[in-house]
Specification:
This protein is mainly α. Helices cover 50% and strands 0% of the residues. The protein is built from six helices and no strands.
């Protein structure tokens, strides 16, 4: 499933029409239709705007759901832990 199909599934999940989601993203309904058909790739400003109405943009772009994503960033990332004193170092 590509970006367009995931965008459409998110729109339908929220019960929005193409006109409604296009307006939320600041685009005309024909542009919304092209995004969903996979003819055009949405821009970052559009994605940021539709996130405000509840679209899971991470899912639209990557296919991975947003929920519980914070846990992915709290585990071991291969870097040594930062001590309290190191976190206070300022870069000038």
């Amino acid at each position: 499933m590509g970006i367009g199909a995931r965008l459409k599934s998110e729109r339908l999940r929220l019960g929005l029409t193409q006109t409604m989601l296009g307006a939320a993203g600041g685009v005309e309904v024909n542009a919304q239709g092209r995004y969903e058909a996979g003819v055009r790739i949405p821009r970052a400003d559009y994605l940021a705007s539709i996130a405000k109405v509840g679209i899971d943009v991470l899912y639209v772009v990557t296919g991975q759901r947003m929920q519980n994503r914070a846990a992915d960033f709290t585990g071991d990332c291969g870097l040594p832990p930062v001590s309290q004193s190191e976190s206070k170092i300022r870069v000038h």
